[in-house]
Amino acid sequence: MWRMQPSSSSSDRRGARLLWVRVDQDSSWKKRKEAIQKASEAGAELVVIDPSDYERVRMLWKKPIGVIGPRPGDLPEDVLPIDLDPEPKQEPRARVALQPVAAAKDQQKVMDLLARYETVIVDCRDWRIIPLENLIAAAQSAGSKILATVSGPEDASVAIDVLERGVDGVLLEPKHAEDIPRVAEILRGRTPPLEMIEAEVVSLAPVGPGDRACIDTCSLLEHGEGLLVGSQADGMVLVHAETIETEYVQSRPFRINAGAIHSYVLSIRNTTRYLSDLRSGDPALIVRFDGSTRIVTIGRVKIETRPLSMVRLRHGGREFGVILQNAETIRLVRPDGTPVAITDLKVGDRVVGYVSGEARHFGMSIQEKLIER
Q1: Would you tell me how many other CB atoms lie within 10 Å of the CB of residue 366?
Q2: pLDDT tens digit string along 212-257?
Q3: Which residue in 11, 259, 283, 336 has the most C-beta neighbors within 10 A?
Q4: How many whole angstroms from its chain centre is CA 219?
Q5: What CATH number should be reported for the domain whose range is 18-188?
């Protein structure tokens, strides 16, 4: 029996998102075949096909298959029929419905369908956020799943970011086969890249003992990755993960010794949090020196008293700082991605960071006058 299950390759996602790919709309079998192959490589859970393609699709694709409309009698039971634009009062012929949303009456219709179908796919690309907010809330109340029809990565980013929960997945109608793996990455927790800056070190000074936080994640981190941390919310520096093994210290490639507990750390959806507020199970935004980002899960936060140092930095006419443990295992990142230990930093060195130019209120960016020193 066919069951809807998320991909098991998404260990870094906060919640598994379904990726279904529609391949029945292109007139060229060559292009349909390419899309199926890309969907397989990207870990999609289901492809929607033209029934006439079933035999040759099965040669390429071993996972569930969907067809829009009633399942033809000559197709096996493992083919999932998808009711198109059904009436809420009619008896569901399938467990999944596809409903266009172009007006308020359609939005209400979807809410009615959510009470009768296990999964409802909505096509509301013209309205984007407005109907999805209501429909996601309705799906949560009904205990049903809701998928959004999208045409590419931009639409997918919008759909999964609506409310805190987002949709349960997407039905991708790809314009280009190359969009399929890009959408898969978005569903797996990849986040938009950041515009990194180069900051000049203007001073370094010990500030005495204090409490610092080590963030241990549930993922292996790579050279050039870390967390953006700062004493001011609008200016942060990239603190490198402990991926480097030395003669005296074993690497801890899941860990970032992030700094003093008062520090801000850049989090998901362009919000900030205090290091002291982070907990096991929380998401963390891992940033690479080139600005690419991904989400991992925090496994443990260790707060211990250690000797600390202040690093002051300048970018343009702005100065900002960060307080870090004074140890050779604590590293910032040069513009070429090379880690540099805080104990080896010199005035005039350049490291990568991030400047938002926005004030923060409870971690959210706001437009107001705010001075942090």
Answers
A1: 10
A2: 999 999 899 999 999 999 998 889 999 999 999 877 778 999 999 9
A3: 259
A4: 14
A5: 3.20.20.60
